[in-house]
Structure formats: C-alpha cells, structure tokens
Specification:
alpha+beta; Lipocalin; Nuclear Transport Factor 2, Chain: A; six-stranded mixed β-sheet; 8 helices; disordered N terminus
Length: 365
Amino acid sequence: MRLAITLTGSALALTAICLAAGDEPAPSRRAAQTSAQTAAQGSTKGTAKPGTPQTATAARKSPAATAAKGPATPGPADEKNSADQEAIRETGETFALAYNKGDAKAVAAHFTPDAEYVDEQGNVFEGRQAIEESLTAFFVENPGSQLEVTIDTIRVVSPGVAIEDGTTTLTHPAGGPSDFSRYTTVHVKTHGKWLTASSREHAPKNRRQHSAQLQQLDWLLGDWVDEDDDSIVEFACQAVENGNFLLRQFTVKIAGQEAMTGTQRIGWDPVSGKLRAWVFDSEGGYGEGTWHRDGDNWVLKTSGVTADGQTASGTSIYTFVSEHIMTWQAVDHEIAGVQLPDSEVVAIVRKPPSPTAAETPVAKK
C-alpha cells in the first residue's frame, strides 16, 4: 500500500507525499556567498554572490572609467587611482577562479578577518570565518551555480579605501529563475593587498519573486499517479492566482474505495526567502513545510497536526528522474513523538493524456 499507508497516518504524511519541493538557496548562504564574491568583485564583476563564480570577463566589462572626471592630462593622483582600480579588478579575477572551483577557503581569503556581509534580506555575516562557513554550505547545495557581476563604478575615496557599486546575476545549472541584485562593497588596502571589508546587497524596490521562484517547480505541473495492488494515489497540479501559487489536489484510494482527498498550496515566502507549502486533508488534518534543494534531490521538512490532534513531523525526499518520473521517500517521521520507519523509495509517474473523442473507439451496432 506504500504511499497510502503513510497518507492515512496523518496530515504530515499527506504533506510529505503531496509536497514536492523547489530550491531556493537560503538567504544566509546566498548572502555569505554574495559577500564572498563581493570581496573578489573588484576584479571581475562586482559583488560575488554566494556560490557562484565571478568571471574575469565581467570585470573587464565594468565601466570603471566612470571616474574620468579629472583633468584632461592625468596627474599622479589620477594615475594612482587608476592603478588601484585595476588592482581591485585583478583581485576579483583570483576571486573568480577560487569561486569557480568551489573553494570556500580561498574565496573567503579575499575578505578582511573582521569583514561584514549583509544580504538583501538584512542577514548579517560577521568575520571571514562565518563567510567561509556559509560559502562551504552553499557550494555543497548549489554545485555549478554561475555568477555574473557587472561593476558600475570603483571610486577611490581616500588612500587605501575604495567603494565599488554594481549588479549581480546568479544562475543555477539545474534551471529555475536567476537572482538579481545590486551591491555596494568597501575595499581596503592592507599590506599592499586589496581586501573586502564590507559588502551589502540592495534588493530592487517593488521586486516580487513569487511567480519567478515557483518556476523551479514547473516539472510538478500536470497529473501524476502512484499505483500498486492495494492503493492508488493521484495528484493534479496547476498554477493559480497569476502563477503566484501552485495548487495540488490529491486523492487516495484503497481497495477501490476513496480513503482521503485534500489540497495543497505552494508559494514563495518573501520574509524567509523560501518556498513554503500548506496542506489540508479531508479528515481535518493539516500541515506546512519548507524545503531546499540538495544536489539532485529536493528535501522537504514538515510539521503538522492530525485529525486526532496529534503532532507530527518529518522529512520527505523527492528526486526528479525525468519528465515523466519522480521518486519519493519519507524519512525521520514522527507522530505524537513516536518514530515511524522510513518508507521505501516510491516511483510516481505522469499520467498519460486521456484519449480524444476522435480516438475513442465507437461501439458497433
């Protein structure tokens, strides 16, 4: 009975089966990574976003020449500023190399020991060590992410201090929407080397990511089914409310009899910066969860209340195999404090389209 057994157990189990998660790098990790890139940005393109390598070409494209408001004939100060700006861009190139390799330690080395990074949601990372730890986690969860950084200006405001402004674009190799933001970075020259002392991201005003973030889950759209000798679990998923939510409806049948139905709504939470889901079943149970991507898997952590008033929690692991197949497994589930055994790995397949009227055989008279 596989899925059906879990489904009839609790609203949490319902959440586990019905929620397929999408990725959204946690703001904290993205922040740390961004700061890391910020450190190196001087070279390539501006603030290096967490987990994504800066490219040397980006730095070369940066219009650092914006500061060309000086005298027609460059003086010693202008030449010094130009040399410092170029040195910052070169540091960014080494940052990009380390970032491309996923080397969190080498990336963090571009920051001062007491550097501060603030992401667009206001999360603060203080110190090189905190930045390195965040980068390490980001590289593990988001392998292959690519960062495009464009430097708008580099201004040497005093001897040994420079301010850089620019934009970043973070893309994910597995698909999904890109992340865009603006940044301001303060570089300081220490023992002849430029390091990042402070980096801050600025979220564009009135930017709403709901529908864009949900595009990560487009592969859930359509009709799905898990069937064995004893039970059938069917799912139907569609985008609603101008694409700002996914609505999933599910039906569980055991021995040919309808055992449970329910709905699930998935949406982007702009406060936590995560994809969140809410589920309600026909027995009166309910639950909610958040999830993140882990390599090829989507990991969903949930909590809820059964129709009998018992608390429940657990983790579900989804793997997108192909356009027509996904797998699911429930692990670490508890109901009223009692640990449940992990489920087997279950294959869920996309339902074939219904035959059209023209294709339906007509009975002979």
